[in-house]
Amino acid sequence: MTDAVDWAGLHDVAVEASKHAYVPYSKFPVGVAAVVDDGRVISGANVENASYGLTLCAECSLVSALHMSGGGKLVAFVCVDGNGDALMPCGRCRQLLFEHSAEGMLLATVSGIRTIDEVIPDAFGPRTLAAYRGED
Ligand code: THU
User: Fold this and answer.
1) pTM strictly above 0.85
2) Which residue is closest in CA terms to ligand 1's atom 3?
3) What pLDDT was estimated at residue 136?
């Protein structure tokens, strides 16, 4: 599966996305890009707010883009800073990505290609709720 992903192309899309970041406060642009399970490529950038805690991470805009462009599950993901260097998604965003991940989703991280289960082990998620309700 790693071989099938155009990581260089996805990196380029993430770099381009970072140029659309709205970061007047941190001056720390973040760009993300992902491949969806139907082959679509989507992207996002961080959007800050004068009320700092309301900042939207780049992953938030990616998830919005996912649903606004037809939904589906994420199979591969890249996150970069304003220098184009790999950036580890924050904890909250790992949870966000997990919710929308395909089984075995891959992420290009600061320590190489990792699976979603490696970056958020034993995650709380939709299946936890389904199991509690006896739905699985
Ligand atoms: N940021 C992201 O967009 N994604 C992450 O996973 C880490 C942090 C943004 C939020 C804020 O605009 C800036 O980076 C500095 O924290």
Assistant:
1) yes
2) 57
3) 75
Regarding the beta carbon of 21 and ligand 1, being less than 6 Å apart is answered no
pLDDT higher than threshold 90 for residue 21: yes
What pLDDT is stored for residue 2 in this prediction?
A: 53
Is 59 a residue of the active site?
Answer: yes
The CA distance from 31 to 80, in Å, is 5
Q: What is the CATH number of domain 2-132?
A: 3.40.140.10
> Which of 59, 103, 118, 135 is the catalytic position?
59
Atom 9 in ligand 1: residue holding the nearest Cα: 57
- Distances in Å between the Cα of 17 and the Cα atoms of 46, 79, 136 are 9, 10, 38
Residue 46 — φ and ψ, nearest 5°?
-75, 145
List Cβ neighbours of 121 (8 Å cut-off, separation of 6 or more).
none
Q: Locate the domains of the chain by residue range.
A: 2-132
CA 95 to chain centre: 10
On the question of pLDDT at 19 being above 70, the answer is yes
For 48-65, how does the pLDDT look when each residue is reduced to its tens digit (9 = 90+)? 999 999 999 999 999 999
Structure tokens at 67: 């649903």
Rounded to 5 degrees, φ, ψ at 7 are -65, -35
